[in-house]
UniProtKB/TrEMBL annotation:
Superkingdom of origin organism: Archaea
Organism taxonomic ancestry: Archaea, Methanobacteriati, Methanobacteriota, Stenosarchaea group, Halobacteria
Official protein name in the record: Phosphoglycolate phosphatase
Source organism per UniProt: Halolamina pelagica
Alphabetical list of SUPFAM superfamilies matching this protein: HAD-like (SSF56784)
GO molecular function: phosphoglycolate phosphatase activity
GO biological process: DNA repair
Length: 215
């Protein structure tokens, strides 16, 4: 088993019920003067088919306008209520707790949302470090947020660690930081529009080889 584990949050450990994200995009559409199709909502929310900034530009949207509108439309309490923990992620956290492995989260989710989610779901005690990316800290696949999380964990950056996430940016951040990468594909390569390479590729964390999870 790896000495320490880093995890992405949204789409990896937790996910949001469809009704919430579609309601949010209705509000964003009101602000931007356009409607979003079901496919556009799913693509942008889950980051399917490549970087969101490129998808936004292809839709004729300015990322600098879209993201503030999205954050204005989000309600932290409502999002927390609509968020659930993936059962396979819960099983992974239980396994890591039994093994005494340090666990850190490095997420793109904005702090005003992420903090409500982890507190509402009683997840904060499951993590030894919790880091939200920012313009100052950097965004995955930049390795700096990963390095910062490892610093917060107090682990040896040259140690045997892994970062697990549902996006190609998570894999890139892991490799750029010198860690192994687990990609959990919750949507399928056909829907994602690409096959994401990683050291370990699974549809659920419970599919990980025993050699990855056992001492």
């Amino acid at each position: 088993m790896y000495d320490f584990w880093l995890l992405d949050l949204d789409g990896t450990v937790v996910d949001v019920e469809p009704r919430y994200r579609h309601r949010v995009f209705e509000a964003v559409g009101d602000r931007l003067g356009r409607e979003f199709t079901h496919e556009e909502v799913e693509t942008l929310w889950h980051g399917l088919g490549g970087p969101r900034s490129e998808k936004l530009q292809a839709m004729g949207l300015d990322p600098g306008t879209f993201w503030p509108a999205l954050h204005e439309a989000e309600d932290p309490a409502a999002r927390a209520e609509a968020t659930f923990v993936h059962d396979d992620a819960a099983a992974l956290l239980d396994e890591l707790d039994r093994a005494g492995r340090p666990v850190g989260v490095v997420t793109h989710c904005a702090p005003f949302l992420a903090n409500h989610v982890v507190d509402h779901l009683d997840l904060r005690s499951r993590f030894d470090a919790f880091v939200t990316c920012s313009d100052d800290l950097g965004w995955k696949p930049d390795p700096e947020p990963v390095h910062h999380t490892m610093d917060r964990l107090g682990v040896d950056p040259a140690g045997d660690g892994v970062l697990a996430g549902d996006g190609s940016s998570d894999v890139g951040a892991a490799w750029n930081a010198g860690l192994d990468a687990v990609h959990v594909e919750r949507h399928g390569p056909e829907r994602r529009g690409q096959c994401v390479l990683a050291d370990h590729r699974v549809e659920r964390f419970t599919d990980l080889d025993d050699r990855v999870l056992r001492n």
